[in-house]
Amino acid sequence: MNRAEELRGKILELTAEYVKAAHAPKAFVPGQSKLTYAGRVFDEAEVINLVSSSLDFWLTAGPCAGEFENRMAGFFGAPDFFLVNSGSSANLLMVAALCAESADKVPGGPGRMLPGDEIITPAVTFPTTLTPIVHNRLVPVFVDCEVGTYNMDPALVEGAIGPRTRAILAPHTLGNPCDMAVLTDIAKRRNLWLLEDCCDALGATFDGRPVGAFGALASLSFYPAHHITMGEGGGVLVNNRGFKKIVLSLRDWGRDCWCDPGRNDTCGKRFDRQMGELPFGYDHKYVYSNLGYNLKATDLQAAIGLAQFEKLPRFIEARRKNFGRLFEGLKSLEDRLELPRIDPRANPSPFGFPITVRKGIDRRALIDHLENAKIETRLVFGGNILRQPGFLNIEHRVHGDLKASDRIMRDTFFLGVYPGLGDEQIDFMLERINAFF
Ligand SMILES: Cc1ncc(COP(=O)(O)O)c(C=O)c1O
Predict the structure, then answer these.
(1) 3-class SS at 46?
(2) How far apart are the C-alpha atoms of 207 and 140, rounded to whole Å?
(3) 145: CA distance to ligand 1 center in Å?
(4) Helix axes 63-76, 299-330, angle to 10 degrees
(5) Cys bridge to 323: 109, 258, 308, 350, which one at CB 3.0-4.6 A?
(6) pLDDT tens figures, 157-208
(7) Which of 347, 343, 399, 400 lies closest to 179, judged by CA?
(8) Do β-strands 234-238 and 217-221 pair in parallel, antiparallel, or remain unpaired?
(9) Using the 8-state DSSP alphabet, how is residue 360 labeled?
(10) DSSP H or E stretch at residue 355
């Protein structure tokens, strides 16, 4: 063993010891301990991976990123998964990929989206699911959502299609799968691209298939509130292989070259191509075939993600268990609270537990009651996004009305189910809610 290896061993040993001492679980004191709606759940494995990666000092996406991408693609049975720096970046990449010139050559859809083309999406949404649509000069067509699933009402989608509609962007809200049987059928019959926002739904299935495996592309987020985390992070699943080069190029500055960081001439034709109107043989490393970004993540992030990935099955189980316990424990209040609705074909991987108060129940009073007991609550993201100050003046079309979306904005909130909450905490949440009534 050389000196560096010896020191590395010592550092990692100390790191494990430190994590056990500094991040030991704290005793739960009902009403005093804060019950966050989400949070990172980790042990020494994540910190050892992070420290180890920092000692390697690779920094940019490298071996850990490659390994994480392979494992994620394997989890979904997808041809490719590309790591990016957030779920928002993943959504941007998906939409930008549909607008790339070369999307015209991708089979399985209507070709490239042009400014003014439409994309169907729900009115209750996360802002950065919608923003890339607006930034790419596409027109969002809003359909109403359902109280209970909080997803876009599948019965409304086909009627929302107009002469310029080219795509559907479906988020699986709070980890509850959309009706993918209806959405895939419509996309196929009407020749539309189907995109899935799975940022809240890692591990959820519909008809036994993971959500994220249905659309041409799907996005994930690894922000700390999500099923697994690397701090900031996200990714794009590429199910339609025709998008592979486009997504990679848009993520990596728009370049035509696909060399991994630190590699040259993977294609063997670095100085032997005729591209655009460039002089023959212009260095392929600096040839740009798309208007791209730099949305890559670092190897440090991926190193954390690898340790989290190992815990994913257990995390999903814990979320499902907490969700199930809240559901059972609140059944007796169904005349006052609308509980989540789950399609029998769906197995959610819950992000949270949504509750809609029925007529006569004051949501604000219930939220205050819970927050006073240190039980954190959240609203369903932007509510009816068209009522948000930044979105009042966006170009859009509404199909039908958005009455349910307005109700969700007014009457719905959600509780945490993340793996940091155990039986004791869920019992306390149930006790407090029952006490309110
Ligand atoms: C449905 C949905 N899409 C996209 C995002 C954005 O992910 P990120 O925070 O990683 O940018 C979120 C964030 O929570 C989300 O809930």
Answers:
(1) helix
(2) 28
(3) 18
(4) 40
(5) 350
(6) 999 999 999 999 999 999 999 999 999 999 999 999 999 999 999 999 999 9
(7) 343
(8) antiparallel
(9) T
(10) strand 352-357
Find the angle CA(82)-CA(320)-CA(147) to the nearest 5 degrees: 90
Amino acid identity, position 188: K
Mean pLDDT over the full length of the chain: 97
Confidence bin at 259 (pLDDT 50/70/90): confident
Whether residue 221 has its Cβ less than 6 Å from ligand 1: yes
On whether the pTM is more than 0.90, the answer is yes
- The answer, yes or no, to whether any atom of ligand 1 lies below 6 A from the CB of 200, is yes
Structure tokens at 264: 């040259």
Are 309 and 76 in contact by the 8 Å Cβ rule? The answer is no
User: What is d(CA 103, CA 58) in angstroms, rounded to the nearest whole number?
Assistant: 33
Burial class of residue 223, CB neighbours in 10 A (0-12, 13-18, 19+): middle
Q: What are phi and psi of 281, to 5 degrees?
A: 85, 10
Residue ranges of domains in the chain, CATH in brackets:
53-301 (3.40.640.10), 311-436 (3.90.1150.10)
Is the pLDDT at 261 greater than 80? The verdict is no
Mean pLDDT value across residues 50-61? 96
Q: What was the pLDDT predicted at 263?
A: 85
**Residues recognised as catalytic:** 226
Alpha-helical (H) ranges within 26-179 are: 44-56, 63-76, 87-99, 127-135, 154-157
pLDDT in tens, 307-339: 999 999 999 999 999 999 999 999 999 999 999
Report the amino acid identity of residue 337: L
Q: Check pocket membership of 87 for ligand 1, CB cut-off 6 A.
A: yes
Token pair 């199909």 in the structure block, residue: 399
CA of 328 to the centre of ligand 1 (A): 28
Name every residue whose Cβ is closer than 8 Å to that of residue 285 and which is 6 or more positions away in sequence. Answer: 255, 257, 259, 264, 270
